[in-house]
Structure formats: structure tokens, C-alpha cells
Design a protein that fits this description.
Layout: H1 5-23, H2 33-55, H3 61-90, H4 96-107, H5 111-115, H6 134-153, H7 156-181, H8 184-188, H9 191-207, H10 216-236, H11 249-260, H12 265-270, H13 273-280, H14 282-300, H15 307-334, H16 337-362, H17 369-372, E1 387-390, E2 399-403, H18 405-409, H19 411-420, E3 424-429, H20 449-456, H21 459-468, E4 471-475, H22 483-494, E5 501-506, E6 510-511, H23 515-519, E7 532-533, H24 536-547, E8 552-556, E9 568-569, E10 572-573, H25 583-606
Parallel strand pairs: 2-3, 2-4, 4-5, 5-8
Antiparallel strand pairs: 1-3, 6-7, 9-10
Helix pairs in contact: 1-2, 1-13, 1-14, 2-6, 2-9, 2-11, 3-4, 3-14, 3-15, 3-16, 7-9, 9-11, 10-11, 14-15, 19-25
Protein name: Acyltransferase family protein
Organism: Chryseobacterium kwangjuense
Keywords: Acyltransferase, Membrane, Transferase, Transmembrane, Transmembrane helix
């Protein structure tokens, strides 16, 4: 197949769309369609190459896969090694496990499977992961494994029809999955959901092998419309759109149109020097831009970038990409297979050594776990078992604590007070959402779906525990978002058995940044001022619930003076992320509120009415 500068230029456009989106999604909400443009181009080119070789009886599976590896893997392995080496000095010890998994799955081209599972609830976010963008390369390599099987083993006269059928079936499957299960995030990283985008390129390659030539004027109109559709898609599609699926066919078909339309001024523009220059380095640009952005976001714990940071990202991305393109990509493209194999082998050995030994070096700066993650009461968190805390010899033992990770965070608070004030309590808690019946799946955003599905597995054991106890304590991050959480708690309050009582907590405040990332120690080092926020709407709803039900009581944890200088108390870290107090913070809270809480709680234990 003849080399086409215009395709390089379209690759350049694809990178710029992704780059702008990654810098700030508000600037170009649908800029992620740049990845879909890459997919269409890959499907188009690989199909053209395979069919041409098949027609000449010159196709070899071994040669095809080796060429793909030599084109992609050298720069990719170099990027992974450098990013891994830097990452172990930027990432916190608590996040190393997720970081190591990202390194390993990226090297094996299966990172899309890891990222489809979403964020770790207590760990780093996907938007801070320097390997997140490798999901697209993983899917591309997986597609390359399948495409030759389709093109070689299906007879030529059936190929176009089969590929069209695959596009329709897989697109329908993706739409149905997203609309019925709301699993947009999982489908976004799915090979099956993304294959139609590659296959659109394959279809146009087969159907319009010799391009479409309708005359200069009509060609210009069609190519202009195709480009306008791409630009509009980049502005009108956003992260809340059901995407991929049918919507993804809009920019992908528009891209395919640009690839097959005959002589036109849009193609002439993309064949120009600047678009071609960006396009020829687009692979290395794509590799390097994201880890730089992710490391800055992780270190600052802030999505938004300053002007100076944007300039730094642009310059460093270009420098690293140019080096990678000139000395890695082009070098191995011209070298024989033996040098490639030696490089790949040595690179893998180095990568293994890095991922094994660098965490051991970085552990020198490890912050004690008690300050950086939940460590108390975790055996009854996300586990189908309960634990008992407080004064275990007390007769006041018919007390149950349930809720989400905010309930987990106050286990040390209640344990400290219980041991000193003659009561014990049983606990079972779950991440993300409390394990209560009646929470509506339709109200859960796609990123929280896995937490909803997981917590709902604990509903039965939670209900059994509620039936065995007299006093039910509930704490969670929000009782009114989703709204059905409040309705579930209200229904529970309305159906309490005779003698049962419920205590609802207004939880502790949140802060605007992760203090562990900002401070990087448990003793205060940063001069940064943190913004402390209290959910007043949440508090008002709980007060109303307690006011209208004689068996429901309200207690406000956020009133404590220990939060005055949050996330620190006496220059010691008391939060392990933006929204959760650590064990030290929980015990510190108990020491401040013990008298006040017991004056509130003692009448409830003794059975006195409001």
C-alpha cells in the first residue's frame, strides 16, 4: 500500500484532540474521539495491507505480528521503563500495588482489563494513573491478533458482509449493555465494544479500495462535511454520553469518509508539512503526554493545571516524543529481528527488576499506614463477617454500626468511647455505599456501579444484624445522594421493631485536597491552607428525619473543634485522603467529643425516650 501523507495528518488531528481533552476536558469535551480516529485508521491500514498480501499469496501471520511488535513495542517498552522508574518516586507507598499492576498489565497489553474495573476506592484515581492511556494500545494489539484470522479465513466474497454484520451486532451489544446495566466505564475499555470502530476502517478499506471520486467539487463537499462532523463530535459528545456504541459510529464513519474520498482540499491540508510532522510523531506524542499530566495531577491532587504546568507539559512532551521517535521508533524499524529480540528481552528484565526493587528503595520514605489508609476494623469492612469493638465484657452489647467507608472511619471513635463508657458494638460496613435494601441502581453513576453491586451482596447479612440488635448506628458520606439512600434509611426508621432505636450521624467534614499527597508525611510540612467543607444539606435532612421519628436520634460529628485546622490536629495528619479521617483522627475526635457524645448516647442505651 502506498504511503499517504494525508493519513499522517489525520493522525496528527487525532492526537491533538486527545491532548487538548487530557489537558482539560472542559476545553474539548469530546476530544477523546481522537482515540476512535486512531482505531479507524488502524483498521483501514491493516486491512489494506493484509488483503494486498493475501491477494499476492504473500501473507504470513508471523511476519505480520512481528512487524506490528517492531513498530509499537520498542518505544512502548522504553516509555514503560522510564515511567515506572519515575513513578516509584512520585507515587505514595499506599498506591504502589495499583501502580505495579498498571506496569505489568501495560507491558502485557491487557491494561484495558485492569482499568475497566474502575478506581480503587481507597487508592489512587484513574485520572492520576500514568498508564491509563495504554488501554487503547492494549485494545489495538488485541484487535491485531483477531483481524488476520477474520480476513484470511473468511472467503473474499463474504468478507464485506461479515464485517458489516460484526459492526451491527457488536454495536447493538454495546448499546444494550450500557443502557441496561449502566456500565459505561467497563464498556469504554472493552475490546468487544471498540471493535466496530476498527471494523469501520476495515469495511471502507474493502468496499472503497480505489477511493470514491465524484469530481473535485463533490469530493470537497463530502470531505468538508466529514471534517465538520468530527469537529462537532469533539465538542458535542462528552463523558456523560453513552459512548462507545451507536454514537461512536458518527465520528468513526466521518473519519473513514476522509480516508476514502478522492482528490480534495481537506486531504491536501492534512498532507501539508505541519499536520504530517505532528502525525509522524503522534505515536510517541501519545505515549509521553499522559504520564507527565498524570504525575502532576497526582502530586498536586488537583485535576486542573496552571498555565505554567500546561506549558511545561507541552515542551516536555515534544522533547521526549522527538527523542523516542528519532532514537527508538525509527532505529528499530530499520534493524533486524535479532536486535529487536535482544532489546525486548533486556527491556523486560530491566522492567522486572525495577518493579521488584524500586518499591523497596522507595519504602524508606514510607508513612505509617495508620495515617495513610484505614487500618482499624477492616476485617468487617467489605467482608461478610462482623466484628465487636468497645468494652467486650459490657452488657450493653446490642449496638450495631453500619454504613459506608465513613462508618469504617468512626470505628476507632466508638471503640475508644465504648471501652471507657461500658458499651460494645458490632459492625459491618461496605465501600462506596451502605448495604441497604432499596437503593436504586438507576441513581448510581457508572463509576460507582461496582461499589453498588458489591455492597448489595451484603444487604441480607446487614438486615440480619439489624434484627439482632437494639440500637442501630448509621454513618455514610451522604444520605441524600443518591436520594434513595435517604428513603432506605427512612423506611428502616419507620419499620423499627418495638424497643429498637436508630442514631444517624452527620459525618466529619471533607477537605479540598488529599493531604497525604500534598504533605507526604504524617507530621505537618506543607504551608498550604486547606478548605474544610461540611455537608449542610446532608445534616439538614438527618435532623428532619430525627425530628419526625421518635425512635431516631441525630448526632453531629462535624461540630468538633479538632476540625478547625483540618486535615491536621496539633501538626499531625488526621485525614488519609480528602474525605476520610484516619485512625489517629478518629481517636482524636473521640477524646474531644467523649463527654458530649455520652450525654447524648447514655439515655439511648438506658432506654429513655426523647
Amino acid at each position: 500500500m502506498l504511503f499517504r501523507n494525508d493519513i499522517q495528518g489525520i493522525r496528527g488531528l487525532a492526537f491533538l484532540l486527545v491532548f487538548i481533552f487530557h489537558l482539560n476536558y472542559n476545553w474539548l469535551p469530546g476530544g477523546f474521539i481522537g482515540v476512535d480516529i486512531f482505531f479507524v485508521i488502524s483498521g483501514f491500514l491493516m486491512t489494506s495491507i493484509i488483503i494486498e498480501q493475501k491477494d499476492r499469496s504473500a501473507f504470513s501471520f508471523y511476519d505480520f505480528y512481528l512487524r506490528r511488535l517492531k513498530r509499537i513495542f520498542p518505544a512502548y517498552l522504553f516509555f514503560i521503563i522510564i515511567t515506572a522508574a519515575v513513578g516509584f518516586f512520585i507515587y505514595l507507598d499506599r498506591d504502589f500495588w495499583m501502580f505495579q499492576k498498571s506496569v505489568g498489565t501495560s507491558a502485557l497489553f491487557i491494561s484495558n482489563i485492569l482499568f475497566s474495573r474502575g478506581d480503587s476506592y481507597f487508592g489512587s484515581r484513574l485520572e492520576d494513573n500514568p498508564f491509563l492511556h495504554t488501554w487503547s494500545l492494549a485494545i489495538e494489539m488485541q484487535f491485531y491478533l483477531l483481524l488476520p484470522l477474520i480476513l484470511i479465513f473468511i472467503k473474499r466474497k463474504y468478507l464485506t458482509a461479515v464485517i458489516l454484520l460484526l459492526i451491527i451486532v457488536l454495536t447493538a451489544y454495546t448499546d444494550i449493555s450500557m443502557y441496561m446495566t449502566n456500565e459505561n466505564s467497563a464498556k469504554y475499555f472493552s475490546l468487544a465494544a471498540r471493535m466496530p470502530e476498527f471494523l469501520v476502517g476495515s469495511f471502507f478499506s474493502l468496499r472503497f479500495k480505489n477511493k470514491i471520486d465524484l469530481g473535485k467539487i463533490r469530493n470537497n463537499i463530502i470531505s468538508s462535511v466529514s471534517l465538520i462532523v468530527l469537529v462537532l463530535s469533539a465538542f458535542l459528545i462528552d463523558k456523560n454520553t453513552f459512548f462507545p456504541g451507536t454514537i461512536a459510529l458518527i465520528p468513526t464513519v466521518a473519519t473513514a469518509g476522509l480516508l476514502v474520498i478522492g482528490d480534495n482540499f481537506i486531504s491536501d491540508f492534512f498532507a501539508g508539512k505541519i499536520p504530517t510532522y505532528i502525525g509522524e510523531t503522534s505515536y510517541s506524542l501519545y505515549l509521553w503526554h499522559w504520564p507527565i499530566i498524570a504525575f502532576i495531577r497526582y502530586r498536586n491532587d488537583d485535576y486542573f493545571l496552571s498555565v505554567n504546568e500546561v506549558l511545561f507539559i507541552c515542551i516536555l512532551t515534544f522533547v521526549l516524543a522527538r527523542f523516542s521517535y528519532s532514537f527508538i521508533e525509527n532505529y528499530f524499524r530499520r534493524k533486524d529481528n535479532s536486535k529487536f529480540y535482544r532489546y525486548a528481552g533486556l527491556g523486560f528484565v530491566l522492567l522486572v527488576l525495577l518493579t521488584v526493587f524500586l518499591p523497596k528503595v522507595a519504602v524508606i520514605n514510607k508513612i505509617p499506614e495508620v495515617y495513610t489508609s484505614p487500618s482499624f476494623g477492616v476485617k468487617s469492612h467489605d467482608q461478610k463477617r462482623t466484628e465487636v469493638f468497645g468494652d467486650k465484657h459490657s452488657k450493653n452489647n446490642k449496638i450495631l454500626l453500619v454504613g459506608d467507608s465513613h462508618a469504617l472511619a468512626i470505628k476507632p471513635f466508638l471503640d475508644y468511647i465504648g471501652k471507657r463508657n461500658d458499651f460494645s458494638f458490632t459492625t459491618i460496613t461496605t465501600s462506596g455505599l451502605p448495604a441497604l435494601r432499596g437503593i436504586k441502581r438507576s441513581e448510581i453513576p457508572s463509576y460507582g456501579m461496582k461499589f453498588y453491586d458489591f455492597s448489595q451482596q451484603f444487604v441480607k447479612i446487614t438486615e440480619q444484624s439489624i434484627n439482632r440488635n437494639t440500637i442501630i448506628l448509621i454513618n455514610c458520606s451522604s444520605f441524600i445522594g443518591p436520594k434513595s439512600i435517604y428513603q432506605s434509611v427512612k423506611k428502616m426508621a419507620d419499620t423499627l421493631k418495638s424497643g429498637q432505636k436508630m442514631v444517624v450521624f452527620a459525618t466529619f467534614p471533607s477537605v479540598d485536597r488529599d493531604p497525604v499527597k500534598i504533605n507526604r508525611d504524617f507530621i505537618k510540612k506543607t504551608s498550604r491552607k486547606f478548605k474544610v467543607s461540611v455537608r449542610d444539606d446532608n445534616k439538614a435532612a438527618l435532623k428532619q428525619l430525627a425530628a419526625t421519628n421518635k425512635n431516631v436520634y441525630f448526632y453531629d460529628l462535624s461540630k468538633s473543634k479538632v476540625f478547625k485546622n483540618a486535615p491536621f490536629y496539633k501538626d499531625t495528619l488526621m485525614y488519609y485522603n480528602r474525605t476520610h479521617i484516619n485512625d489517629y483522627g478518629s481517636v482524636t475526635l473521640s477524646k474531644d467529643l467523649e463527654k458530649d457524645f455520652m450525654s447524648f448516647f447514655r439515655p439511648i442505651i438506658s432506654g429513655e425516650n426523647k
